[in-house]
Amino acid sequence: MCKCLNIARSTYYYETTVKTDESELENKIEQIFHDNHDVYGTRKIKKELQKSDFQVSRRLIGRIMKKLGLVSKYTVAQFKPHKQKCNGDPVKNELNREFNGQAPYAVVVSDLTYVRVNYKWNYVCILVDLFNREIIGYSAGIHKDAQLVYDAFATVRTDLRNIQMFHSDRGSEFKNELLDKVISTFQIKRSLSMKGCPYDNAVAEATFKIFKTEFVYGRKFDSLVQLRHELTSYVNWFNTGRIHGSLNYLTPAEFRQIGLMKIVRLSVDNPEFHFLCRCQKHLKRQSLSKMILYLLALQVYICLVKISILKQNI
Prior knowledge:
Layout: H1 2-5, H2 10-13, H3 23-35, H4 42-51, H5 58-68, E1 107-117, E2 120-129, E3 134-141, H6 146-154, E4 165-168, H7 177-185, E5 189-192, H8 202-216, H9 224-240, H10 252-268, H11 271-280, H12 288-313
Parallel strand pairs: 1-4, 4-5
Antiparallel strand pairs: 1-2, 2-3
């Protein structure tokens, strides 16, 4: 008959399956899970269900637990990295692991990490100034892409032209037309780690280890808005309240302030500074920062005059 009707034989035996109602089982699993302080996994829940005459497989219990968002406290969420193309730019490692002794904004390093938000992976990008290990830029988002890095640059409070070098690993998120435009516009020198070598970006890696230990682990984020709000609060404490062993137990803000005071102290020792102090009486509205700029400009002028005199003598 199937041959005459030109239909498959399986059609004759086909029967529509009606989905069984699992609401009672779902309620029972949820009750067992919460009654036992959210620690039971599929094995123990299966044993408890057998006491109530429920014969179900661990696979079904796992599917229902995933549907209800039930995660045992013994279960550690594992991040599964997706394979991405490596940034194959011919850019060399210009930083060459010279992490110490850098001037303010001379070198900024960056990296990305993942944070679990409402049972989904979100991502955080930070920018660290090697001068005082300060987080000068940060961002959080649902995608690990160049836009996340771009948003981190948008939070930097200084003129981006002050940044002389930007160093990162060879992740594909750091190779994008959007990011390249920022680098070229503000004339920032580029540096990339060697492929597969995290030691070339050790400061960023170490900062993220601190970040995860102090900020991520032990916290629960229900939304991206909450993550961004608490991230802002943590970065503010990290920069102004947290002391660093590598900075002689000073905060990044204190270390930067001391560095600026040293520059001012060196300037005060110059005779040109006293000349500007006399000028200050006639420029009462000028700030100290402008005075220092005047001093630097005057020093450059004096150097140019000395060079021209030497050329004439030669």
